[in-house]
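ingest -> validate -> predict -> emit
validate: passed (alphabet ok, no gaps, 327 aa)
predict: started
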Amino acid sequence: MKVLVTGATGFIGGAVTRALVNRGIDVRVLTRRASDLHNLQGLTVELVEGDLRDQASLRKALTGCQQLYHVAAHYALWAKDPSIFYDVNVTGTKNLMEAARSVGTERIVYCSTIGAIGLPPGGGLGKEETPVSLDQMAGHYKRSKYLAEQEVLKLAKAGLPVVIVNPSAPVGAGDVKPTPTGQVIVDFMKGRMPAYIETGMNIVDVDDVALGHLLAMEKGRIGERYILGNKNLMLREVFEILSRLSGVKAPTVKLPRLAILPLAYLNQWIANVTGQPPRIPLEGVKMAKYKMHYDCSKAIRELGIPQTPPEIALGKAVQWFRDHMYV
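emit:
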């Protein structure tokens, strides 16, 4: 059996690729000409060049593959030209799904995001079936991923054999970019966080997320969504764990979100003028309003996703960032 993985050079995609190779599965990965291949070092995979915006290259990449893991996305809290989120995450996903249908791909796992899952308006845990709408999406990344997921759900109803997974906040080894969550860890370890805005998140080991993808391919129900997560924590608790792991003192000053919002808007304006990413991402400050805590029991029950303690997952991240000179 041969599988195609998109986004294999990234954080989650790299972990998915490693998990597949470790199982002895024949893996082909879709790469762009300028892709950073560090996450694929030491892995025996077939490289094929293509782009989510080029359907012909996608059909070529998919030919001969029985399964597809679509993990690629433009994941950031800011871009000078927001259209890239929609070109890659929405149009690119639709292109890939239609290419998979045209070549007869037998089974697909699509990696969405926890941000596309709703949160109860009165508080509580978000679940796969919690209602949510586009106007509740904060920022272009979440909006684009929500729209992409809606396209995938439509195609699933039309017969496309696709299962959707929604990872929460993965941490661990291989966060090359790093992701926004990984950047928080790096900034903490560098002592760049004298204060913080309290928020809630669900932390999960990236290797558990990778296995969740494989389990979704094996056991997931077509057209269903599965939250791939683990433990709900407040940011203060994450910092306390990181402090124990790294020896860096956790910040004790908690700032009100509304006091930081004007600075975030100013940072956004400066970033749009200079083209340099903002130090205080506006979308991150907006998202801090929501306590992003979720019920992960469906993936545990139906897929059997592992539940590595977040202390171990964060420990892997701290060690990897140190070993690779991010700190």
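The mean pLDDT is 91.
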